[in-house]
Amino acid sequence: QIFADSKEASNAVAREIADLIRQKQNEGKPCVLGLATGSSPKTVYAILVRMHREEGLSFRNVISFNLDEYYQMEPDSIYSYHRFMKEQLFDHVDILKENYFIPDGTVPATSLRDYCTSYENRINAVGGLDFQLLGIGGNGHIGFNEPGALINSRTRLITLDHSTRVAASMEFGGLHNVPRKAITLGVAPILNARRIVLLAWGERKASVIQRAVEGPVSELNPASYLQAHPDVSFVVDESAASEL
Ligand code: GLP
């Protein structure tokens, strides 16, 4: 889906999420959302916050699971995805504290394996993801599933690509401050979501979007795995669509 600009696109995506939340409310069911960080979803979150304030959109039936977190990372660090989500969304809506989950960047190395399994189990226990929001890395990563991640990969500790660390180095005030590892939801649980929307804005995403949408399905570009999903949309602006 190609939109004139990221604002229009974000509006459409926020509408879809709000409609889903309300539909589930009417059915008396929880709405299970997979959420992403990065700059791409920021406007979607801002619009959802506005809908909460102005239209009374309630998040009380929302259960959310974030894709990833740096490792090691304290939740209250200014660089953490915990902090990002609180600032962009959770602190401004009525989601219950016990209903949002973000991978814990402080889990001891020895219990990581069990922790990752339990993170996925928790998603399954509430019925699986109704909707997964994604961004895309310049190298095709989804969550932090870097090139080489397999289609059946599970939630795990990964080593960040050099290019991913370079892309994050501005925010962290230098490459040496960027963590080398992260916890990410695997490709398999992402593909298990019933609906997936990937966002990409700007010219710097044009080439990776072209390869993800039109290229071969390949571990060299994990976003290309989405081609196999029955209900996925790549929501892009004109610039990110410029090489399609
Ligand atoms: C980070 C996140 C990804 C995100 C990507 C792109 O690496 N872990 O989930 O999709 O950045 O970020 P941006 O949206 O800022 O381009």
From TrEMBL:
Residues 5-227 form the Glucosamine/galactosamine-6-phosphate isomerase domain. Signal peptide: none annotated. It comes from the Bacteria. Transmembrane segments: none annotated. This is Glucosamine-6-phosphate deaminase. It comes from Dyadobacter flavalbus. The lineage of its organism: Bacteria, Pseudomonadati, Bacteroidota, Cytophagia, Cytophagales. The gene is nagB. The chain holds residues 26 to 269 of 646 of the full protein.
